[in-house]
Amino acid sequence: MLYCRSMAVLGVMLMPASFAHASAQDDAYIAGYAAGALKHDLKLDMPALMVRDGVITLPVGGLEAADRAKAVQLLWEIPGVNEVKTSEATSQQVTEASSKSARIAGVKAAPAAESDILQTGLIPNGHLFKPLLADPRWAHFSAAYRNYQSNNFDGRDIGSVSFGETIPIYRSNFGQSTAQWEAGLQAGVFSDFNLDASSSDLVNTDFIAAVYSSMRVDKFSAFGRIYHQSSHLGDEFLLRKVNTKFERVNLSYEGADLRLSYELPYGVRVYGGGGGLFHTEPSELKAWSTQYGVEFRSPWRLDFASMRPIIAVDVKNFDENNWSTDVSVRAGVQFDNSTVLSRKLQILAEYYDGFSPSGQFYKEKVEYFGLGAHFHF
Residue 208 and residue 251: Cα distance in Å, rounded? Predict the structure, then answer.
C-alpha cells in the first residue's frame, strides 16, 4: 500500500541518523571543560558540576542573577552540551552531599530544586514552553495507526502523520534575571490516510502556520500565538464521494490563543488556556474555545533502556460544538538517549473521544484507539 511504502521509505531515511548518547567519558570531559571555563572566564570556582548525558546541573545558590545568566550562557557554548539545569544548592553543598553519599552506602541526598535556563541568542536550542504531548494539533513529527470505533470518518483503519515544529528564532533574558522570553515560528501539516482503501487514499490534510512568543520564569511558562489553519480533502477521497451526500467545507480561519503552564514536583505539569477565531470561512463558525490538561513525565528513568514513562491528558471545548468535551489521552515511554535528527523518540498509545480534530470533519463525533511514534526536541 502507498502509505506503508511511504512509511518504509521514511524509516530508511531516518535510520542512518544518529542514535547517540553521551558516554560517561564524554560527561567527564564536559564537566572538566565547564569547570575550567567558569574559573577562567567568570572567576567562579565550581569543581562539583554534575553532568549526565550531556546535561549540566549548575549549582547557583549564592550567585548574583547576572552571574547566573552569564554562567548558563557560557556552559551552553560548550560542544556536546544538550541542556543546562540550575540548582539552588551551593557548590559547597553539592560537594558535601556527594561526599556524604559516597561514605554512607545506600544513602543518597535528595537533590535540590532544579530549573532550566536555556541558551539565548539567534536560533537557540530547546523551548521555554514544552510541547503539549496529548494535543492532537501540536506541531511535531509523528506517524500513528488509529482504529476508529465507528464509520463516520472514512474507514476504521486510519494512518495519521504529522510534520512540523516550533522553531525559536530569538531568545533573551529579562534584564539581568533568569526569567526568559523567546519569539519564533510554528508550523505543522497533519494528514490522515484511509488504510482500508485500495490505494490508502489521502482523506484530509490540515495546514497550520503561526508566529508565537513564549516566556518562562522558573516552573511557570506561557505560550501565545497568532495562527492560520486551512483544511483540504484528498482527491481520491473526493472521487469516491462524488455520488454521495458528503458536503465539502471550505474550512479556513485565523486565530489567536494563549496557554499557561506550571510544573509541579515529581514530573507533573498542569496547563490551561483558550483562544478565539477571526476571518473565518464559513463565516458562521463560532469563535471561542478552551484547552486544559495534565501531563506526567516521570523524573525516574529505567537506566537499562534509558526509558522514561509518560502519561498526558488534553481536553478541549469548542463553542462551535456547544462546549462538548473532546478528550485526548496518550501514554507510553520516551527514550532519553535515543534521538533522530536531534529529536527525542516517544512511543505512545493513544485514545481520543470527541469531535474530530481533522478539519473537514469537525462536525463529526469520533472515537479511536491508536499507537504512534513521536519525535520532539
Answer: 12
Residue (of 133, 208, 114, 210) closest to 168 by Cα position: 210
Return the closest-CA partner of residue 80 out of 32, 121, 145, 42. 32
User: Using only C-alpha atoms, what is the Rg of the chain?
Assistant: 23
Q: What is the distance of C-alpha 356 from the center of its chain?
A: 21
CA distance 237 to 197: 9
pTM: 0.78
Q: Which of 298, 290, 256, 314 is nearest to 132 (CA)?
A: 314
- Predicted confidence (pLDDT) per residue in 158-200, tens digit: 999 999 999 999 999 998 788 999 999 999 999 999 999 888 9
Query: Among residues 344, 291, 341, which one has the least CA distance to residue 318?
Result: 291
Distance, in Å, from the CA atom of 183 to the CA atom of 215, rounded to the nearest integer, reads 9
* Helix 24-42, helix 65-76: angle, nearest 10: 130
Beta strand ranges found along 174-201 (DSSP E): 180-194
d(C-alpha 60, C-alpha 294), whole Å = 30
DSSP tag of 299? S
Whole-angstrom CA distances from 57 to 63, 156, 260 are 14, 48, 26
Q: Decide: 80 and 54 in contact? Cβ < 8 Å.
A: yes
